[in-house]
């Protein structure tokens, strides 16, 4: 049940950010749910591999390279999902930062009940 709630909250944040960020478009609410599912899968499978391969750079930049990895995950989701478009790398960086902030806020509110 928590997983479904997190997917739905992520989809809401994706739609919200697509309305306010230039360069990010989402075709509809179903597409946003698919984007949330794809992001969850990419974060589960691809992100640990990227972190492992880029560990020296991540350590050298004191963890700031993780922002780049998050942007790459967003761009991968853009490549996999039709109807979700991110226009460039810097928009993906901004989108990933804002998505992380909003997810943290909403997930902490959802856990309080």
TrEMBL record:
**A Pfam family this chain is assigned to:** Phage_holin_4_2
Q: Does the keyword Membrane apply?
A: yes
**Could you tell me which InterPro entries the record lists for this protein?**
Phage_holin_4_2
Q: Which keywords does this chain's UniProt record carry? A: Membrane, Transmembrane, Transmembrane helix
Q: Where are the transmembrane segments?
A: 27-46, 53-77, 89-110
Could you tell me which PANTHER family the record lists for this protein?
Answer: SLR0284 PROTEIN
Q: What is this protein called?
A: Putative membrane protein
The scientific name of the source species is Salinimicrobium catena
Organism placement in taxonomy: Bacteria, Pseudomonadati, Bacteroidota, Flavobacteriia, Flavobacteriales
């Amino acid at each position: 049940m928590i997983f479904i709630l997190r997917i739905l909250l992520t989809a809401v944040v994706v739609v919200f950010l697509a309305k306010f960020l230039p360069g990010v478009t989402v075709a509809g609410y179903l597409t946003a749910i698919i984007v949330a599912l794809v992001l969850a899968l990419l974060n589960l499978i691809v992100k640990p591999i990227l972190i492992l391969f880029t560990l020296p750079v991540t350590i050298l930049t004191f963890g700031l390279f993780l922002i780049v990895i998050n942007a790459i995950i967003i761009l991968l989701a853009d490549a996999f999902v039709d109807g979700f478009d991110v226009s460039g790398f810097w928009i993906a960086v901004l989108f990933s930062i804002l998505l992380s902030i909003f997810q943290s806020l909403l997930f902490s509110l959802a856990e309080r009940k």
